[in-house]
Amino acid sequence: MALQALAERGAFRPDTVRLVQSPVVRGGSPCGVLYTLLGPRRTQLTAVWDIARQELWCYDSRGRRFSTRPTAAPGSVK
Length: 78
What we know:
Blueprint: H1 2-10, E1 18-26, E2 29-38, E3 44-50, E4 55-59, E5 65-70
């Protein structure tokens, strides 16, 4: 879900970019996942999955939010 939303915004083919996932931890407990899409020419787009709200917040390369989507859990937080 995060890869698709970010790739669409950047007009990238999903198979040409790399998606890095990092857990977001508050008070020692996981509370979300930070996704960073690494595109060509050092382009970075990010998304944050909020565990409590079950929402994916997407941000463009300038840090402006462009989408908030309710979503199912994208996977376990490691």
